[in-house]
């Protein structure tokens, strides 16, 4: 299902994420590569700070912005020379990369960055929250197709040759789950997962569709939600996203 990006960009958390990115941008740089450009929102923001902006996505970006060069490309095999860009921005991308390709993608990002690399990913995401069930292959999917989770230590390990220059956190998340709630929600067919996502099933590639559930499944789902709500009220909130600026030494 296509995302209404105009509405999505107006949410308070998304505005906070964009504002944090602008606060941590390196100064006095000329060129920047935006990985995972999607609707061009980040590329448009970057254009106010960099004379030369290149926006890349797995399919050719459809937007046309003054001063922004759009290219089709794959983060695991970037068609650029070493150090081609002063700064590389990679936001909300690495959580989607297949785990066996993740380290290679990170090496590619580090390779084409001349000075700084900015990484933005969900922070300590619990993939059981918002999980979906594919109606084609019946396998459980992580929400939004997020197949990787990150914290500070994992980000540092993925970029061992770069120095973390700054780390910031965005948003606040209260929602929690547990093994019993996840089990009950799986029995229910995960009816309240992230089915409005654009990402297909990570196993078979089918479009994710909201399931029709039976009365017993509905009982399981409501019980799981009640347990989650109780746990969430007793839990300390955590950030939604983490931004880390890496610098080449």
List the helices and strands and how they pair.
Layout: H1 5-8, H2 12-24, E1 31-35, H3 41-47, E2 52-57, E3 68-72, E4 85-91, H4 99-112, E5 113-122, E6 132-133, E7 140-141, H5 152-158, E8 162-170, H6 179-187, H7 215-233, E9 241-248
Parallel strand pairs: 1-2, 1-4, 2-3, 4-5
Antiparallel strand pairs: 5-9, 6-7, 8-9
What does this structure look like?
This protein is α/β, with parallel strands linked by helices. It has a single domain (5-248), classed as Rossmann fold (3-Layer(aba) Sandwich), CATH 3.40.50.150. It contains 7 helices and 9 strands, in the order ααβαβββαβββαβααβ. The protein has helices at residues 5-8, 12-24, 41-47, 99-112, 152-158, 179-187, 215-233, and strands at 31-35, 52-57, 68-72, 85-91, 113-122, 132-133, 140-141, 162-170, 241-248. A 7-stranded mixed beta sheet has the order 3-2-1-4-5-9-8, sandwiched between helices. Strands 6-7 form a two-stranded antiparallel ribbon. Helix 4 links the parallel strand 4 and strand 5 (113-122). Helix 6 (179-187) packs antiparallel against helix 7 (215-233). The chain is globular, with a radius of gyration of 19 Å. The termini are far apart. The relative contact order is 0.16. The mean pLDDT is 96.
Please compute the radius of gyration using only Cα atoms.
19 Å
Discrete helix count: 7
**Which stretches of 5+ consecutive residues score pLDDT under 50?**
none
Query: Alpha-carbon distance between the termini?
Result: 43 Å
Number of strands: 9
Overall mean pLDDT stands at 96
Major sheet strand order: 3-2-1-4-5-9-8
